[in-house]
Write a structure and sequence with these properties.
Layout: E1 13-20, E2 24-26, H1 44-51, E3 52-58, H2 59-64, E4 80-83, E5 96-99, H3 103-114, E6 118-121, H4 124-132, E7 138-144, E8 152-153
Parallel strand pairs: 1-6, 1-7, 3-4, 3-6, 4-5
Antiparallel strand pairs: 2-8
Bound molecules: NADP nicotinamide-adenine-dinucleotide phosphate (NAP).
Length: 187
């Protein structure tokens, strides 16, 4: 199934990730080298770079890739907010604000800076906290054709309750059927 519905800018809070089929957004040690060369629909990068006004993330993701010019492969630039309990030891970077505050306050700062465009939450831990507060508008995922088995999950909440969801780009309560072949020839 291909989502052909373009993302729009409407001041939304998007929890946006590329994710392995088994639910990981990064490999062990924050590795990102597992991403296959998947085919995007035409115009996908432009769609997100033009609708994103600000980014909100966490310190682990920032420390793993501390480059404000690397977002969307350098195709996006704008205000980035990074939550951390110790902003004082963060290396300053242009356009990046390190915040130690309530997660809802951090989101408000990002929304003000986004100027009516969307805020992308690029952190599993920050996204989970915002979800608990009812502050996520969309969970926007690009499922990549790979199984990881280890790493950082989109949603880790041991002991938590199931979170019911509704599909936006399809029949709201539809299950989605993905069918894959394991790649046998890895040489
Ligand atoms: N697949 C994709 O599309 C994609 C896109 C972007 C990023 N990623 C990956 O996502 C991963 C993100 O890693 P992660 O989820 O482990 O960590 P993270 O959310 O980036 O960082 C966790 C850290 O954020 C800080 N933090 C979180 N909530 C806070 C709060 N309420 N107040 C103050 N500080 C707070 C804390 O930092 P302190 O310890 O400093 O206090 C915490 O240890 C990275 O590996 C990144 O590469 C994947």
């Amino acid at each position: 199934m291909h989502d052909t519905t373009p993302q729009t800018a409407a001041g939304k809070v998007l929890w946006h990730f590329s994710m392995s089929l088994d639910g990981f957004v990064a490999g062990p040690g924050h590795s990102m080298d597992w991403m296959p060369d998947a085919t995007n629909r035409a115009g996908l990068i432009e769609e997100y770079t033009s609708t994103t006004g600000a980014i909100l993330g966490g310190r682990a993701g920032w420390d793993a890739f501390p480059d404000p010019n690397a977002v969307y492969g350098g195709a996006w630039s704008g205000p980035i907010f990074v939550l951390t309990h110790h902003p004082e030891d963060a290396e300053p970077a242009e356009g990046v604000t390190f915040l130690d505050c309530d997660v809802a306050e951090a989101l408000e700062a990002a929304q003000r800076a986004a100027g009516g465009k969307n805020v992308e939450v690029l952190s599993p831990t920050v996204g989970r906290q915002l979800l608990e507060r009812g502050l996520i508008d969309e969970i926007d995922l690009h499922i990549l054709p790979v199984l990881l088995g280890d790493g950082i999950r989109l949603y880790d909440n041991p002991g938590g309750s199931p979170v019911p969801l509704r599909l936006i780009n399809g029949e709201p309560m539809a299950e989605v059927n993905f069918r894959y072949h394991p790649v046998r020839d890895l040489g």
